[in-house]
From TrEMBL:
It is a peripheral membrane protein. Its EC number is 7.4.2.1. Keywords: Amino-acid transport, ATP-binding, Cell membrane, Membrane, Nucleotide-binding, Transport. It catalyses: a polar amino acid(out) + ATP + H2O = a polar amino acid(in) + ADP + phosphate + H(+). This is ABC-type polar-amino-acid transporter. SUPFAM superfamilies: P-loop containing nucleoside triphosphate hydrolases (SSF52540). SMART domains: AAA (SM00382). GO terms for molecular function: ATP binding; ATP hydrolysis activity; ATPase-coupled polar amino acid-transporter activity. It is found in: Cell membrane. Residues 4-238 form the ABC transporter domain. The keyword Heme does not apply. Pfam families: ABC_tran.
């Protein structure tokens, strides 16, 4: 069974038909990178997978459960999915450590000791073991993004969603975040990553999905989709970004 199965997903905002029938799956342990021009619906797709948006039509099935079904327990479904945004969305008044413990305690009802232990381990994992007591304003953008990754990991998600996690970073800080993501991929984390980092997608993705105009134009191994695209729309996009 696929970890995530997306079937005929449609999402409109008013008359703007943004997702026009999206079908694809993410297998356990797979890294799927989604690429495509601005406005093609990549963020909307991720937000539908995480139920931050309700699609008008279609299904998102996580571990066999249709999480778009009205009877589905939204909080339970969301708990399985970690999300990292372009803007890190840390709590500015909380330390790195507290940013990583608060949802563990309130949502997962973990004890303070357990939440603390798990948060420390995940901050170590992203290379911030020395910064656990720093506040977001005392951290670089790349460090803040790594706290956001540690925070998501602390909830033990089955799937991690990344929406252009390095797009807001100064160029010299991008590498550290990509290194952490590469390590997660090697550890077997299932990841769905919207990115403009073609070198990362080429190296780390098991599959690349090219979206344009709310549909999947082409998908396959990176060597095909990025290295030898079949569709003219994919070639045009790659000529602009490579
Ligand atoms: P991408 O991430 O590929 O750049 P988005 O999914 O952000 O694309 O946006 C796709 C389209 O959906 C755009 O036309 C955008 O204006 C529209 N859109 C996205 N979110 C909303 C929203 N909350 N309300 C209205 N329109 C939206
Ligand atoms: Mg986007």
């Amino acid at each position: 069974m696929a970890l995530v199965e997306i079937k005929n997903l449609h999402k409109s905002f008013g008359t703007n038909h943004v997702l026009r029938g999206i079908d694809f799956t993410v297998e356990q342990g797979e890294v799927v990178c989604v690429i495509g021009p601005s406005g093609s619906g990549k963020s909307t797709l991720l937000r539908c997978v995480n139920l931050l948006e309700q699609p008008q039509e279609g299904q998102v099935i996580v571990r066999g459960e249709d999480i778009t079904h009205p009877d589905c327990h939204l909080d339970a479904a969301r708990q399985q999915i970690g999300m990292v945004f372009q803007q890190f969305n840390l709590f500015p008044h909380l330390s790195a450590l507290a940013n990583c413990t608060v949802a563990q305690r309130t949502v997962l009802k973990r004890s303070a000791e357990e939440a603390d232990r798990i948060a420390r381990a995940n901050l170590e994992r992203v290379g911030l073991g020395e910064k656990i007591l720093a506040y977001p304003a005392q951290l670089s953008g790349g460090q803040q993004q790594r706290v956001a990754i540690a925070r998501a990991l602390s909830m033990d998600p089955a799937l991690m969603l990344f929406d252009e996690p390095t797009s807001a970073l100064d160029p010299e800080l991008v590498g550290d975040v990509l290194t952490v993501m590469r390590k997660l991929a090697l550890d077997g984390m299932t990841m769905l990553v919207v990115t403009h980092e073609m070198a990362f997608a080429r190296e780390v993705a098991d599959r690349v999905v090219f979206m344009d105009g709310g549909v999947i134009v082409e998908q396959g191994p990176p060597a095909d989709v990025i290295g030898d695209p079949k569709e003219e729309r994919t070639r045009t996009f790659l000529r602009r970004v490579l």
